[in-house]
Amino acid sequence: MPSMEPLWINERLSIPGSDLSWEASRSSGPGGQNVNKVASKVELRFNLPGSRALSDEVKARLASLAASRLDANGWILIVSQLSRDQGRNLDDALDKLRQLVLRALVRPTPRRPTRPTRASKERRLSEKRRHGERKQGRRSHDPDG
After folding, report:
1. Quick check: is 62 in a domain?
2. Which ranges of the chain have pLDDT less than 50?
3. For residues 39 and 83, what is the distance between their CA atoms, to the nearest angstrom?
4. 20 to 30 Å CA-CA from 9: which of 68, 118, 127, 131?
């Protein structure tokens, strides 16, 4: 396919066109004769391991977000066949990749472990006591068994 122009993720980050490749094929599903004649389905591939546009930290988050879309070489495969127009499907695939990268750019906040309060411990213990008493009340009081 023809060389691609860079994909702008935000105002400061872009993925070079050399890291992206795409090909078109015939789409599945309804569409009459158009399905048999026009190659409108788009498969966009992003060279995740070879890209120098993203840091290793972002690449790791992106790989976990797109785990189901990774191929054997670590490339991300995005398929779009929403439209009957190849150009729209390419734009849709590029937008899906942009959204994935934007999600991967957000660093998750680390969880800070907290301790239960005294009141919550007391509530838990009193609930356990009530539950045990409720079950105790269900037992038969017949001494023969």
Report:
1. yes
2. none
3. 11
4. 68
